[in-house]
């Protein structure tokens, strides 16, 4: 896998959080290395920085760094093609398993002191795991794949990580809605005194909202659980396989599991679209 890697040294943390552990009550929050969120910040660089600052295409409070990593498979392919070209002469996007990677590092106020700014803006940064062992950048994971399968794995990983982002969003939404419902229930007597005619309905609405999100959360956990398990199986299988027969068997099993999980992801998306459509219809 050839990669173009952007390291964003930033004032604010805009990495996309995701959850990959579906069984833990306190799962680790990972930063999705395959994308970054666009961000326009209220913090502007000082005038003396503008002439020397390399501007980021994604964020305004960022000093970016870009580097390229060429994989051994791509290098071997270029050399086997003959000619005088080296991998460094080509763009990494020409690799069939190219991946764009975004890393985020803490750098408040563009590396200067906050006293230089008339209106200091507090930096925001979240505790997230910035790397995880199931990133498919490990070279040995791709040695058993042909070019088409390598390209598919990169797309597969991006799709799985998007589902993991959805799981984080639903987990956060459920925690908020459930806490709201519990607060209303614990203070129901006060709610009755303030709103005697609508207290029951208010509590019921809060419970229904929490229950609906909980149902989606359970469904999404199942999708992510299957998807992440398939990634682990593929990683272990290809790392362990040394014989051609074993490799063929592993690839066949992985293809079958991938099709099952892809079907579940598509079903989940259709369900979410239908649910959103029902929610947007006016009540009769």
Describe this structure in words.
With 284 residues, the protein is an alpha+beta fold. Helices cover 49% and strands 13% of the residues. It contains six helices and five strands. The strands form two sheets. It has a three-stranded mixed β-sheet, with no helix packed on it. The termini are far apart.
List keywords for this structure.
alpha+beta; 284 residues; disordered C terminus; 49% helix; 5 strands; three-stranded mixed β-sheet; flat; two-stranded antiparallel sheet
Q: Give a short account of the largest sheet.
A: 3 strands, mixed
- How many helices? The count is 6
Catalogue the unreliable spans: 242-253, 279-284
| Beta strand count | 5
Helix content: 40-55%
Short description:
The chain is of the alpha+beta class and 284 residues long.
Explain the layout of strands and helices.
Blueprint: E1 3-10, E2 15-19, E3 29-36, H1 47-50, E4 62-69, H2 72-80, E5 99-106, H3 147-186, H4 188-194, H5 199-240, H6 244-280
Parallel strand pairs: 1-5
Antiparallel strand pairs: 1-4, 2-3
Helix pairs in contact: 3-5, 5-6
């Amino acid at each position: 896998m050839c990669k173009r890697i952007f390291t964003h040294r930033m004032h604010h943390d805009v990495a996309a959080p995701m959850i990959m552990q579906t069984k833990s009550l306190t799962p680790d929050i990972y930063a999705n290395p395959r994308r970054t969120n666009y961000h326009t910040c209220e913090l502007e660089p000082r005038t003396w920085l503008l002439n020397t600052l390399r501007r980021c295409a994604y964020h305004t409070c960022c000093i970016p760094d870009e580097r390229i990593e060429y994989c051994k498979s791509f290098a071997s392919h270029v050399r086997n093609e003959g000619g005088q070209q080296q991998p460094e002469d080509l763009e990494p996007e020409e690799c069939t398993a190219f991946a764009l990677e975004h890393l985020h590092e803490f750098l408040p106020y563009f590396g200067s002191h906050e006293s230089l700014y008339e209106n200091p803006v507090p930096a925001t940064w979240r505790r997230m795991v910035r790397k995880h062992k199931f990133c498919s950048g490990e070279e040995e994971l791709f040695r058993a794949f042909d070019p088409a399968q390598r390209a598919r794995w990169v797309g597969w990983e991006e799709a799985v990580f998007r589902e993991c982002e959805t799981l984080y969003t639903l987990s956060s939404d459920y925690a908020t809605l459930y806490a709201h419902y519990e607060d209303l229930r614990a203070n129901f007597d006060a709610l009755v005194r303030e709103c005697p005619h609508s207290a029951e309905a208010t509590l019921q609405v809060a419970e229904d909202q929490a229950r609906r999100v909980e149902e989606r959360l359970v469904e999404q956990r199942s999708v992510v659980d299957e998807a992440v398990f398939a990634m682990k199986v593929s990683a272990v299988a290809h790392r362990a396989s040394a014989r051609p027969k074993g490799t063929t068997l592993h690839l066949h099993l992985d293809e079958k599991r991938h099709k099952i999980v892809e079907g579940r992801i598509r079903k989940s998306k259709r369900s979410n679209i239908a649910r959103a459509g029902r929610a947007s219809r006016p009540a009769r």
